[in-house]
Give the backbone structure.
Amino acid sequence: MTETVLRDIYLYLREHELVRNESEFSKNWLGKSDCYMRTLRYKKAEPSIGSFAICAVRLEHTLKQLSSHSVAEDLRRYGELCRNHVTASAPQNLHQLRKSV
């Protein structure tokens, strides 16, 4: 399900010419390899929390540069979605860390 959030962000950025393709999105907006989004689809895997965190930071940075642009509100909203996902996942990740210690 969370892969669809990243997919929506990617499609929005592509529509507004802030990214050219999925490979560029994976590398520049998620901090992952250029095949990251394809791999998620192929393996039916969930994106990492790190990819959401990086995406939130990059959206925030872009928002600062485009604050007067028509996309600003949408970038802010997508950034919040990413941050909310990271925050919601924090207790689960902390529990997993405690189990591994």
